[in-house]
TrEMBL record:
<keyword id="KW-0813">Transport</keyword>
<dbReference type="GO" id="GO:0009055">
    <property type="term" value="F:electron transfer activity"/>
</dbReference>
<feature type="binding site" description="covalent">
    <location>
        <position position="52"/>
    </location>
    <ligand>
        <name>heme c</name>
    </ligand>
</feature>
<dbReference type="InterPro" id="IPR036909">
    <property type="entry name" value="Cyt_c-like_dom_sf"/>
</dbReference>
<keyword id="KW-1133">Transmembrane helix</keyword>
<dbReference type="Pfam" id="PF13442">
    <property type="entry name" value="Cytochrome_CBB3"/>
</dbReference>
<feature type="domain" description="Cytochrome c">
    <location>
        <begin position="32"/>
        <end position="109"/>
    </location>
</feature>
<protein>
    <submittedName>
        <fullName>Cytochrome c</fullName>
    </submittedName>
</protein>
<dbReference type="GO" id="GO:0016020">
    <property type="term" value="C:membrane"/>
</dbReference>
<dbReference type="GO" id="GO:0020037">
    <property type="term" value="F:heme binding"/>
</dbReference>
<dbReference type="InterPro" id="IPR012218">
    <property type="entry name" value="Cyt_c_BACSU-c550-type"/>
</dbReference>
<keyword id="KW-0479">Metal-binding</keyword>
<keyword id="KW-0249">Electron transport</keyword>
<feature type="transmembrane region" description="Helical">
    <location>
        <begin position="6"/>
        <end position="23"/>
    </location>
</feature>
<dbReference type="GO" id="GO:0005506">
    <property type="term" value="F:iron ion binding"/>
</dbReference>
<keyword id="KW-0812">Transmembrane</keyword>
<feature type="binding site" description="covalent">
    <location>
        <position position="55"/>
    </location>
    <ligand>
        <name>heme c</name>
    </ligand>
</feature>
Length: 109
């Protein structure tokens, strides 16, 4: 290492590539194993609102977007907004899980 000043950088690069490879093999999916060994996807609203946090805040009490606690909209209106967007909110943020996200939002107090 004393002879080659580039070696530490190569070592860090190799470690980073190995870490990226390991993380990609683990997967970043939202899956858990059910009884019987089959893998099922979690469809609870709490896990699905991860894309909402960027605008509505970590606890969904507002940020760039409005507070979602105690929202005065029906389930159908929420599903419509999730599907088609409204104002600065983009369409399709729930990607097929609109009903579960709407139920979760309506459960917030």
């Amino acid at each position: 290492m004393k002879n080659n000043p580039v070696f530490p950088y190569i070592l860090i690069l190799a470690f980073g590539i190995g870490l990226i490879f390991f993380m990609s093999m683990n997967g970043a999916g939202n899956h858990e194993e059910a009884e019987g060994g089959e893998t099922v996807e979690q469809n609870d609203g709490a896990a699905l609102v991860q894309s909402c946090i960027g605008c509505h805040g970590g606890d969904l009490t507002g940020g760039m977007g409005p507070d979602l606690h105690g929202i005065a909209l029906s389930k159908e209106e929420i599903v419509e907004i999730l599907t088609n967007g409204k104002g600065s909110m983009p369409a399709g943020t729930a990607k097929g899980n609109e009903e579960a996200v709407a139920d979760y939002i309506l459960s917030l107090e």
